[in-house]
Amino acid sequence: MRTFVAVPVNAALQNVLISQLATLQSQPWASDVDWTPEKNWHLTLKFLGELSAEQVEAIERSMRDWFAEGMSYFEAELIAIKGFPQAQSGPFIVATLEATLLLQALVREIEEQLRCFEIPKDRRAFRPHITLGKWKGKPDAFPELEISLEASWLRVDRLNLYESVQVEGRHQYKPLATHALETYD
């Protein structure tokens, strides 16, 4: 199974992104974008790769013990919708987030929890983003864009272990397990 750990996009932020994308999707170049369905929007914290069913079950069980000393939910600030270069697979349109110390600490803790499963740490720097679409047009025709997302926040209140499956040539993300962060409201 192809798996990853991510934060799902909350309803309030989803509405903000849908509103902003309506403008982008009316642009002449919009047909050159393979837009990500809203149900697939998430912030990836750790890509796990191909795992056996046994490994996935063990990780699901271990998630109950993550943050045994407690970790409260928090909100991560979004910065902008813009182009995101990917050397291997072409550019994407993403919503970028501030790489706060809390978000970075969360990623480090997840990597630490996964060490016993021999899942290596990421070599690349953590660049928090939510993928909104993949550019399918000519590389030199990729639009220059940056739309500010002032006062937009992702509520980081749970972590999902997802399986990525291909259905009719499109990725679908199926939640396998959820770990809720503590709330003090």
Automatic annotation (TrEMBL):
EC number of the protein: 3.1.4.58
Top-level taxonomic group: Bacteria
Reactions the enzyme catalyzes: a 3'-end 2',3'-cyclophospho-ribonucleotide-RNA + H2O = a 3'-end 2'-phospho-ribonucleotide-RNA + H(+)
Motif (HXTX 1): 42-45
A GO molecular-function annotation: ligase activity
Gene3D superfamilies (UniProt xref): Cyclic phosphodiesterase
Transmembrane segments: none
Keywords recorded for this protein, A-Z: Hydrolase, Ligase
NCBIfam families according to UniProt: 2_5_ligase (TIGR02258)
Name of the molecule in the record: RNA 2',3'-cyclic phosphodiesterase
